[in-house]
């Protein structure tokens, strides 16, 4: 997929991984709607992106993805403004074991909503031209982090939902490729939550073990995650792919065992 003139929507786009992929898309000539609930980081990000890529190449929406009506409105306004939608990246996520219901709501329920909204605007079923969706999971979906059990559960959920949706898209001829990305530790503000008792709850006491785990597995630069996403966006053959990104193996894919009866 050539990216000039393509339209992307990125949730959690103002910081960390979301910002890295937004910048990568803008560098290749796409236009990007950034959706974020944090007005301060969004303001700073907006200034930088408009300076680097010009006013008009990006749109900013202050929106909490758990607000269903507002998220719906954001998709609608993006399509109204830019004319259509080609790429949706459901990236917004949090680590909060104390308010674990919120973690499920942001990381899984809202990602499902984001996927359905993206399909509404891209699926051939709705008379649209197709596109690509990337849902952000984590290596936590493979490593069963004992100190972030609910976060881990949401990332398992993202993995299962996305793979099932990719098959639904193939069977239903949606024309939309749906893939999931599973990064290991990435150098973003999300990692700092391990120092916040308010976020870690009963698992706060294990923060040194988590730190040790980061030391063992390494911490990736967000730009590498953006490289992986660009690979998924550009490779038209990928649907239902599970991309893993780790320090030891770099960008690679999970190979599933074929299902036997
Ligand atoms: N950093 C890591 O080590 C790591 C590893 C694997 C997967 N991930 C996943 O990558 C994604 C991005 O994480 P990150 O590391 O860039 O985090 P981050 O905290 O640096 O950035 C997340 C962005 O999402 C926004 N956001 C949070 N809740 C939101 C909500 N309810 N509505 C709208 N925006 C919201 C934040 O304001 C922030 O700008 C998450 O899904 C995370 O689980 C992160």
TrEMBL record:
The keyword Oxidoreductase applies. It comes from the Eukaryota. Keywords: Fatty acid metabolism, Lipid metabolism, Oxidoreductase, Prostaglandin metabolism. One of its GO terms (cellular component) is cytoplasm. One of its GO terms (biological process) is prostaglandin metabolic process. Pfam families: adh_short. One of its GO terms (molecular function) is 15-hydroxyicosatetraenoate dehydrogenase activity. CDD domains: ADH_SDR_c_like (cd05323). It catalyses: resolvin D2 + NAD(+) = 16-oxoresolvin D2 + NADH + H(+); prostaglandin A1 + NAD(+) = 15-oxo-prostaglandin A1 + NADH + H(+); resolvin D1 + NAD(+) = 17-oxoresolvin D1 + NADH + H(+); resolvin D2 + NAD(+) = 7-oxoresolvin D2 + NADH + H(+). Its EC number is 1.1.1.141, 1.1.1.232. Catalyzes the NAD-dependent dehydrogenation (oxidation) of a broad array of hydroxylated polyunsaturated fatty acids (mainly eicosanoids and docosanoids, including prostaglandins, lipoxins and resolvins), yielding their corresponding keto (oxo) metabolites. Decreases the levels of the pro-proliferative prostaglandins such as prostaglandin E2 (whose activity is increased in cancer because of an increase in the expression of cyclooxygenase 2) and generates oxo-fatty acid products that can profoundly influence cell function by abrogating pro-inflammatory cytokine expression. Belongs to the short-chain dehydrogenases/reductases (SDR) family. This is 15-hydroxyprostaglandin dehydrogenase [NAD(+)]. The gene is HPGD.
